[in-house]
Design brief:
Strand order of the largest sheet: 8-9-10-1-11-20-12
Number of strands: 22
Shape: globular
Helix content: 25-40%
Strand content: 15-25%
Largest sheet: 7 strands, mixed
Distance between the termini: 27 Å
CATH superfamily of the largest domain: Dipeptide-binding Protein, Domain 3
Length: 531
Amino acid sequence: MSAISKREFLQLLGLSGLVLGATSLSPGRAFAQSVGAQPAWANLPEGAVPKTGGKLVYGQTYPNWAVGTSDNGKHPHFWIDLLTRSIWNCLLWVDHDFNLQGELAESWQPTDNSLKVWDFKLREGVMFHNGKEMTADDVVASINAHVAQKGSSFLNKWFSKVEPQGKYAVRFTLNAGYAEFPFALAEYRLAIVPAATQETILTDGIGTGPFKLIEVDNRRGFRAVRNENYWLKGRPFVDELEGYVVNSQTAINGFRSGQFNAVFNIDPTTAAQYEGANGVVHKSAGGDQFLISLPKNLDLVWNDPRIREAISLSIDRNAINTIVYNDPGTWVGNDTHMSGLNREFLPRPKPYDPVRAKQLLAEAGHAGGLTLPAIVYCPSFPEEPRVMAVVAESLKNNGINVEIREMPCDGFSAYQQQVNAPFGRPARSLVGPRNPAINLGRMATNDSESAGWSGAKGDDYKVLYAKAIAEPDDEKRTEMYQQLQAIAQSDTPAIVLGGRRNMLAHAPSVTNLKSHSQNWGSRFDDVWIES
């Protein structure tokens, strides 16, 4: 395929009026002095000698649902597609190994074993892009704004109040004990911004992140420049950052032509094409999981839990890993929101068991097989049609026929929820990989994903979940988490296929850019470009 010109590429994007790299920068650098020690998670690989300067321009193939449908691209709530931590920071961050790390918070702890009150010590000397120092008042204002604007249900469900404790500390009071509460404060929407009025807070694109926002086009992308006062001393290394939401073919064309020097969420089947263009491909151990919601409030065949379990055991999940992700023999979904990345993950004893599936179908009165209602999805990632083809073929081979219908992503959520509120149509939803308390709580609180799960096992699950998250002892809590997974597997309220393997490609000159299993956790403050 021939390379396209820069002008042609911009026209393809619809960005001919937005000139890449138009900002000129002073060669001088002024670094803010860090009061606390640099966090260990920010250490560079041993022997690394990073270069400064240059520009990182990345394509993002995740569909632009958030920024593209918003009326303000400067609001962090809409930046999951464009990767929030380019412009903003949160109090905490989940690293590549799913450990919780301090970002704008240096330390945190509960005040006692009730786990209802949590104290956070803030980093001192952190500056916003507008030159104002971040203090406890900004954190309190930011959190209250996120709660008011329903930024994250993972926070709102437990939140009672947040108060300043002097200039550089805050105290959270919860409405119930919650051992893993700090993980909620790492959520990508919960960025810390300068205190402002209720009408203006979160709307101006000002954060504490490694880059300062210069321009954003809600439908396409953004441009940003280096934050010379970033709280991580000497970071970032790159002078300019640009990101654009594009489809898979535009992404690889742009990479070949040199318009992109990185692409996030590449189609796994195109990895060889990126490598053929001298690209370096990095694959994470996980990514968003594909959950199939089965509404149980209607008179449908899968109201029988034996049918639901038979569906699950008829899907060859390892074939998905092998065919789509070239990752055979690795973890597969266990019909809970838990991921193989979680240390508490409890795999099904035999995830693919056609013999047992046929027995269950026979017990339920369908020895000759059955046809399921149609299931709808929109391809959030380029490879998803192939994932669903493997699922449909696997089910068919085991006597279960189903149409898995692909729909456009534009308007999909409204279509899915248009009937049978609050559960909607049978559909695939995406489940981002998170910590156990958030993962397992979704089956207890998310109507569309649990889809009317009721009965003794559903009740037992909710009671045990409330007990587990209030347990201060890690070992006891882990045991209860595994019991919760066993309960869900025995009743199969939803089918969880497993997780994608997030993949990115970058030019050989781009160094230390890594794919994150939590796509929204991707960072740019430790990336540099070799000359």
